[in-house]
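Reading a protein record of the kind used here takes only a little practice. To see the layout at work, look at the sequence and tokens printed below.
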Amino acid sequence: MERIMQILEPRSLHGIAIRVVAFSAGIALMNVLFAWYIGPHLPGNRLVYQIANATVVGAPFLWFFFAVMMYQVRLQRRLSLLSRKDGLTGLNNRRTFLELAERRKNQVDVGILLLLDADHFKAINDTYGHQAGDICLK
């Protein structure tokens, strides 16, 4: 899916125009092929023809659109989580902590706030290495 998204990503106005033309040409080609190969085998009812055309031509593009959209939604959720949580500990980062504290402050008048800070943590990393420091943080 990553490769498909890289292909679909326009990098300029020219790229957008090329993709619009390519998708329009693909839809037109599928309509022509449908009219030549499938259309003559359908009963004379225009409604049946329209439904079959929408199913054969439109449905693949609709499924493709929904697949891309769902990928984008999952990616957006993942990016949101990564921007709000610390990758090592899984705890809220400073910005998220302050947002939640402000929201809580607006909800109630009294409360207790606890904030922990590891002072002189650089000494642990310098003495025992960053891997040991990561273990201590976890």
